[in-house]
């Protein structure tokens, strides 16, 4: 009976969240997290293994969609003209994070967590505002780099906390670097194969009028799960596998608009909402104190401050002040990876329970508040969609 009620609750939120979002004029993801939090507090959503699994897949699917949204033209522009700026941006982020940790006597957890990136909330912004926004395009392209850096940071951090400076720690570092290199080589190899034998695309994913067995969905989801399984086997964050699968489709099947639309609708319409609903439900409101709330505000402020400073120092010349502000805000919502780092740190005793709850609250409030602020600023600025002028 409880599981039936759980299913009904989740499905009701999924169905009604867009309606509430329209009425209240706030992003749908804010509604999903808020209703998840409320239902979790009321006991309607509880810690269930199946729900955890589906929510995890929802996050994985979001990373798959992130790979599909990559703008290769902008990536080439960044490589040609903004490569130094991107490096400076990340150097500034970690430098400022180190300064904050030094000033406030914070531990390694904070140094790793404050500059961390996650594409989950960014994907919801792209869903709402479209791919053509210059600040979102740049945020996504840089976010991809940030995601890889974050995966590396989490892997190093997790390995250090679990193994210390041992041989197994070195092995974990080598493994992730090897996987990244092999992934790049495989994508290049696939490019060569499809260039020499373009008819292979038709065998893998036929045209829609010839595809009577939904081969496109079969192939795309199977590839996603295979890549995720390989990452699990290698004990590497599954985000890398999901993103690679999405990147594969973007590189070789970008003409199949119908397929991309089906994949996106399935993710944004079902799996992603479950992830955000479950994330909201994990917060235990009855255990939140004023001190925890105050500390979470400090964490949020630190996350936002280092990005605002870094963004304006590095990208204001290219994005102009208004777009730079939107860019900085859109890059300041590391919801999922923040939770991951907090969980690792808490499990290994690097932070106490109060700090753990502060990180969770900060990651949620950060996403909720900034999604609303971005919408308000976007409308206030009336940002136009002119292309970024790159001064070589």
Structural key phrases:
disordered C terminus; single chain; 16 helices; 79% helix; mainly alpha; 392 residues
What do you see in this structure?
The protein has 392 residues and is an all-alpha fold. It has one domain: Up-down Bundle (Na+/H+ antiporter like fold). The chain has 16 helices and no strands. It has helices spanning 2-24, 28-42, 49-68, 72-103, 108-113, 120-129, 134-163, 167-196, 200-204, 215-233, 239-252, 257-281, 290-314, 316-330, 335-347, 353-381. Residues 383-392 have low confidence and may be disordered.
Give the helices and strands, then pairings.
Layout: H1 2-24, H2 28-42, H3 49-68, H4 72-103, H5 108-113, H6 120-129, H7 134-163, H8 167-196, H9 200-204, H10 215-233, H11 239-252, H12 257-281, H13 290-314, H14 316-330, H15 335-347, H16 353-381
Short description:
The chain is built from 16 helices and no strands. It has helices spanning about 1-25, 30-40, 50-70, 70-105, 110-115, 120-130, 135-165, 165-195, 200-205, 215-235, 240-250, 255-280, 290-315, 315-330, 335-345, 355-380.
């Amino acid at each position: 009976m409880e599981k039936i009620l759980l299913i009904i609750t989740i499905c009701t939120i999924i169905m009604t969240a867009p309606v509430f979002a329209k009425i209240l004029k706030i992003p749908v993801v804010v509604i999903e997290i808020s209703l998840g939090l409320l239902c979790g507090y009321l006991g309607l959503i509880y810690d269930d293994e199946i729900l955890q699994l589906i929510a995890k897949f929802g996050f994985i699917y979001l990373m798959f969609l992130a790979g599909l949204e990559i703008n290769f033209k902008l990536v080439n522009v960044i490589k040609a003209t903004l490569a130094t700026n991107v490096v400076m941006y990340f150097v500034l982020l970690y430098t400022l994070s180190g300064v904050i940790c030094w000033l406030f006597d914070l531990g390694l957890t904070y140094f790793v967590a404050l500059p961390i990136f996650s594409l989950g909330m960014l994907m919801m912004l792209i869903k709402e505002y479209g791919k053509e926004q210059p600040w979102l395009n740049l945020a996504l392209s840089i976010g991809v780099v940030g995601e890889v850096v974050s995966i590396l940071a989490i892997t190093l951090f997790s390995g250090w906390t679990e193994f210390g400076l041992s041989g197994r720690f070195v092995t974990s570092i080598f493994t992730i670097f090897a996987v990244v290199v092999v992934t790049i080589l495989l994508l290049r190899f696939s490019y060569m194969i499809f260039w020499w034998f373009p008819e292979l695309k038709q065998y893998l994913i036929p045209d829609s009028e010839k595809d009577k067995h939904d081969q496109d969905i079969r192939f795309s989801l199977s590839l996603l799960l295979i890549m995720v399984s390989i990452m699990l086997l290698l004990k590497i964050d599954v985000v890398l596998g999901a993103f690679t699968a999405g990147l594969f489709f973007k590189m070789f099947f970008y003409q199949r608009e119908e397929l991309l639309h089906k994949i996106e609708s399935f993710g944004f319409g079902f799996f992603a909402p479950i992830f955000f609903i479950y994330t909201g439900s994990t917060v235990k409101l009855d255990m939140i104190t004023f001190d925890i709330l105050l500390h979470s505000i400090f964490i949020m402020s630190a996350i936002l401050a280092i990005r605002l400073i870094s963004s304006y120092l590095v990208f204001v010349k290219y994005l102009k002040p208004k777009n730079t502000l939107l860019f900085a805000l859109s890059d300041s919502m590391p919801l999922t990876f923040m939770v991951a780092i907090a969980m690792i740190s808490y499990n290994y005793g690097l932070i106490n329970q109060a700090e753990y709850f502060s990180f969770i609250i900060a990651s949620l409030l950060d996403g909720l508040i900034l999604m609303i602020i971005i919408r308000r600023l976007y409308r206030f600025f009336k940002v136009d969609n002119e292309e970024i002028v790159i001064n070589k």
